[in-house]
Design goal:
With 186 residues, this protein is mainly alpha-helical. 79% of the residues lie in helices and 0% in strands. The chain contains 8 helices and no strands. The longest helix has 64 residues. The chain is elongated and about 110 Å long.
């Protein structure tokens, strides 16, 4: 091996190392940029989550505060402000519906209970509350329909409905004692 050839190999090897170094530097730069993007996305999601939690808490506090108010009109105002903050606030529409029932405003109570079902279709309470509002408005067919929908939403609704004095009278008035069971009494 001649000195020229060895020098040529060292130069080629140096060029290869330089190219590999540039590739590694490029990959490191790309990874750095990707990590910055991930961090920015994470910060945005964290901020959105904190805002959502804060909004839910503010709405929930208003719903809970409404339980202490004796005046139904005051409860309505507080609950409507909770719903304005977070339309999906748990139990806001149900509580609003009962405030309207206390004001003897059945159409608004029914509307509130319908919203509860719309925003929380897997929860039996909205269906039961809507059934009760329909019972109070003498619409027995819709009352029974929503009692059955409560059972479809949650099987434990049957026990709750049977234990609820209001619904015992509903079922008795309707002449339906085992409307939820698979087997009927004779």
């Amino acid at each position: 091996m001649t000195l020229e050839y060895a020098s040529y190999l060292v130069t080629v090897l140096g060029a290869i190392v330089s190219i590999l170094s540039l590739i590694l530097a490029g990959l490191a730069g790309f990874e750095y940029w990707k990590l910055r993007q991930i961090r920015q996305d994470f910060c945005k999601q964290k901020e959105a989550l904190e805002t959502e939690i804060s909004t839910r808490e503010r709405a929930s506090h208003r719903v809970m505060a409404s339980y202490q108010l004796q005046n139904p009109a005051d409860r309505v105002g507080l609950l409507e402000s909770a719903i304005a903050i977070n339309p999906k606030a748990f139990n806001a529409y149900n509580t609003l519906g009962y405030a309207y029932l206390d004001l003897n405003d059945l159409p608004k109570a029914i509307e509130a209970f319908r919203s509860a079902v719309e925003f929380h279709p897997t929860l039996k309470e909205g269906y039961c509350d809507l059934a009760y509002a329909y019972f109070r408005s003498d619409n027995r067919d819709l009352c029974l329909k929503y009692l059955r929908l409560a059972l479809q939403a949650d099987q434990s609704a049957e026990e709750d409905i049977r234990a609820d004095v209001r619904f015992a009278s509903v079922l008795e008035d309707l002449g339906v004692y085992n409307c939820f069971s698979r087997s009927q009494h004779t």
